[in-house]
Design goal:
single chain; 764 residues; alpha/beta; 5-stranded mixed β-sheet; extended
Amino acid sequence: MRLSSLLALFRPALPLILGLSLGCSLSLLMVSWTQGDADDSCRDELGNGRLFQGRGDSQGVSRDEAGDEDIQPRIVPYHKDPNKPHKKVLRTRYIHTELGIRERLLVGVLTSRATLNTLAVAVNRTVAHHFHRTFFFTGLRSPKVPHGMTVVAHGDDRPVWLMYETVRHLHQHYGSDYDWFLLAQDDTYLQADRLSELVGHLSAGQDLYMGRAEEFIGGEEKARYCHGGYGYLLSRSLLARLQPHLDTCRNDILSVRPDEWLGRCIIDYLGLSCVEVHREMTYRYFELGKNADPEREDSTQFKNAFTVHPVSEPNLMYRLHKRFSQIELEWTYLQIEQLQMQINNLSERTPEGKAGVTWPIGINPPFKPRTRFEVINWEYFTEEHIYLCVDSAPKCEMRGADRADVSAVLEIAVERLNERYQPQLRFRKRRLLNGYRRFDPTRGMEYMLDLALEAYTQKGHSQVIVKRVNLLRPLSAVEIIPMPYVTEATRVQVILPVTAQDQDYVSNFLDMYVMNTLDTHDNVLLTFLFIYDPFDAQRVSQTDVFAGIKAMIGEVEKRYGDVKIPWISVKTEVPSQVKLMDIISKKHPVDTLFFLSSVWTEVNADFLNRCRMNAISNWQVFFPIHFQEYSPAVVYRDQQPSAASSSFASESLRDGHFDRHVFDEACFYNADYMTARTKMAADILDNEELLESMDVYDIFVRYSGLHVFRAVEPALIQKYVRRACNPRFSEDIYHRCVLSNLEGLGSRSHLAMALFEQEQANST
């Protein structure tokens, strides 16, 4: 009786008790199993080479022990010694330097003095820009080095010596910066994308000598060397191990072929032979026949090749590049179609189903505005006109890039229609009825076309039909452009040219300069450039036209004791911007950052920081487009402007425009200007009037080779002023000045309202 009552009491907890007992029992059994020889079995696996390819049993054990130690974290305690002075920790400029991240591939092309300007140029133009760095190694440098090529001359044309110096140069200068090195001859066509993909799948920490394996002369050895005509890969670790033996190889190994000499050196001192296949990765190559035609080559070996050899002439190199570009394009289109089919099939399993698939498949869906202010407007256009212009005009002529864009879109639309409906129908465009386009920042440029088409059947019948076509020019892959390191602490040297006609505006410029730079202790210096005409220069001892400005400068220097504002006096009839900069450039160090200003500019901290960031030495110059206020007489007429619009507040941007015709303001380094000016010297000998026909912007565009960054600058605002256009300047500069004055009067609506009021006043 007691037992039955006890069982009835514990019956609800019986499953819990059984579960706990079973769990404890199984855990004890698992502990006994895992405490066996698990480590030994793992060690046996490593030793047998199933998980790790070792060179011997002892090496495998030592690596295992090192691996066990690596798993254990090592905590390094920090103890600050109070007796030692504190040292500032210097961090690297880029994070990839601190992490030890290297670029994957460097390409070295072996060329000669005879082929540097032919085959080497063809290699540079076809594939060099697809690699991170490409060097051309030659024995003796040609008198004229081709533009845009990095040529390293070793001073000796002997092939083996050239190979020795090339390998030594690569290790000495770039051995720690790259994981892989590709060496090839200039008669080799390289498929850049495939080679980059190959090294992306290879481990950088292994010794590898990979290419087309060739037997040595005699063919008695099993070891192979890599044929130089098809290129070969050398790993960074192999290059580092080979470096100590290069001098010995140069003295002891006799060979006529440089690739055979390098292969013998690697085999004798490192014990490595050339391989074509490594861990299922194959180095593919193709031997081109004597009279082969790349357009007719259709074999699988040719299509999959990484390198093609021999290429006898530059024209053949360009034809090969065209053929491989077509192959890559066809393969890319095939991949896109396959991905679109996969997306279409998988869309059935999504919550939205087939309706959730956007057009085109694989492209981001259209932007969905949350408010009416975010709606993207469509631009209406025909083949001749656009009905939404930059200056708010209702209609303007289509020209330039817009005309080329619309022509290309119409051509592609008809071409795609023919691809879809042929051979049943063939279309020919008659005219564009309606065209709409808009730029969607999430997708690209969208087009909607109403086309009048003439459709032809297979029997020759024709009929005019109207068809609506939707097209999308998608945004391509976003490219991160590497830019040099710049800071906002660079000193800016402001250069202010002043003529006798500009004196009335200097007072406002100085007030803003003092408030925005001197009061804020910004790292900025100011230099005045007083431009005297010959008549004023003769009377400077009696009456100095710039005496008032010099007095204002003296007051500023007196108020700020540690501030000096120098000035330079120049006498000239034609104040050419280039001639003035020549004088300024000689009086400043080469690392000076110039801001070439005008008396109507109001200097502020925001713009100065952008000047520092956008002007990069030996890389980029910055020509900002300032915001110009419209003429108050036209905009406000008899009304007084409000306080907000009269000051340089954000609302003042509504009563002005960005003046694209003025290039007076510029940010650049003195060294860049001097370099461009040096390149210009030869042209000045033939045409002495060239200095007066050009400005600083023209010099950088024509002679510098730097990035010329031209962009609107909202922080650079100027009051309205009617500029004095000097007819002695070039026709282009004079024409730009006149256009600036005309467009600076007011917008079309302002001018129309002014004319309307004038006509009303005249009629009454």
